[in-house]
Amino acid sequence: MLVDLTKDNWSTTVQSDGIVLVDFWAPWCGPCRLFGPIFEAAAGRHPDIVFGKVNTEEQPQLAAAYGISAIPTLMAIRDGIVVFAQAGALPEAALEQLIAQVRALDMDEVRRRMAAQPAQG
């Protein structure tokens, strides 16, 4: 499912269970225009994943809230937890590999590690 994300639908979309992939992009960005069709094609192959696009020109507050300083930036969120964020356009094979890795995550282990981080200092 492909969704345009805004400040109005961000929380309800990314805080739900399941996987959300977010493409932070802008219309003037050449690499963003190259990555867009790859991202959209993956959305067609993975109907159980939400593929969200954030136009950083129209949603600067979302980009700022997540420290987006370069575009495109791809973010993977699973069960409301950001599990991946990286600037740069990915080739199709790398995007598919990322999707497989996010699907394979043991989210109980991810939550345990997150809970242990403050104790480690």
Notable characteristics:
121 residues; alpha/beta; Glutaredoxin; five-stranded mixed beta sheet; 5 strands; disulfide bond; protein-disulfide reductase activity; Thioredoxin; transport
Q: Quick gist of this model?
A:
The chain is α/β, with parallel strands linked by helices. Helix content is 41%, strand content 24%.
What does this structure look like?
This protein is of the alpha/beta class. It has one domain (2-120): Glutaredoxin. It is 41% helix and 24% strand. The protein contains five helices and five strands. It has helices spanning 10-14, 30-45, 60-65, 92-104, 107-116, and strands at residues 2-4, 19-25, 50-55, 73-78, 81-87. The longest helix has 16 residues, at 30-45. 23% of the residues are buried.
Note poorly predicted spans: none
Average pLDDT confidence is 94
SSE order, one letter for each helix or strand: EHEHEHEEHH
Which value, in Å, is the CA radius of gyration?
Answer: 14 Å
| CATH 2nd-level architecture | 3-Layer(aba) Sandwich
Write the layout of secondary structure elements.
Blueprint: E1 2-4, H1 10-14, E2 19-25, H2 30-45, E3 50-55, H3 60-65, E4 73-78, E5 81-87, H4 92-104, H5 107-116
Domain Thioredoxin: 1-104
Active site: 29 (nucleophile), 32 (nucleophile)
Site (Contributes to redox potential value): 30-31
